[in-house]
Amino acid sequence: MSARVTHIRPDGGNEHKHITHVKRVIPNGTPESVTVAEMVTYLDNGNRAHTLENGERAEIHVRRPSTGKPYIQTQADGQWSNNLLALPKF
């Protein structure tokens, strides 16, 4: 099963690395707000997450730059995409 991310909270910019928190609905239906670090741990532990906008699903993966903290980004049809950045802010 996969958690659905519904909202993002960016801080200080408009790129994926600026997202600090997400709102997600976990598989049991519980909505919650978590930090990106918590989301990275969730994904690293073998869980899955996605966005679903206009019927289009995009899987969320962890990106690990050579410098800086890991961040999350969507991938659709094998291409990195901006689905997270298109989500409503909270």
Characterization of the model:
This protein has 90 residues and is mainly beta. It has one domain (2-81). It has 1 helix and 7 strands. It has one helix at residues 36-44, and strands at residues 2-10, 19-25, 31-35, 48-53, 56-63, 71-76, 79-81. It has a 7-stranded mixed beta sheet with strand order 3-2-1-4-5-6-7, covered by helices on one side. β5 and β6 form a beta hairpin. The radius of gyration is 12 Å and the shape is globular. The N and C termini lie far apart (25 Å). 20% of the residues are buried.
Structural class, by secondary structure, is: mainly beta
Number of helices: 1
Oligomer: single chain
Q: Residue ranges: pLDDT <50 for 5 or more in a row?
A: none
| Span between termini | 25 Å
Query: Quick one: overall form?
Result: globular
**Side-by-side strand order of the widest sheet:** 3-2-1-4-5-6-7
Radius of gyration, in angstroms, nearest whole number: 12 Å
Number of beta strands? 7
Helix % is 10-25%
Proportion of residues in extended strands = over 45%
Count of the separate structural domains: 1
Q: Major sheet, described briefly? A: 7 strands, mixed
SSE topology string: EEEHEEEE
Mean pLDDT: 95
Write a short abstract of this structure.
The protein is mostly beta strands.
Which helices and strands appear, and what pairs or packs with what?
Blueprint: E1 2-10, E2 19-25, E3 31-35, H1 36-44, E4 48-53, E5 56-63, E6 71-76, E7 79-81
Parallel strand pairs: 1-4
Antiparallel strand pairs: 1-2, 2-3, 4-5, 5-6, 6-7
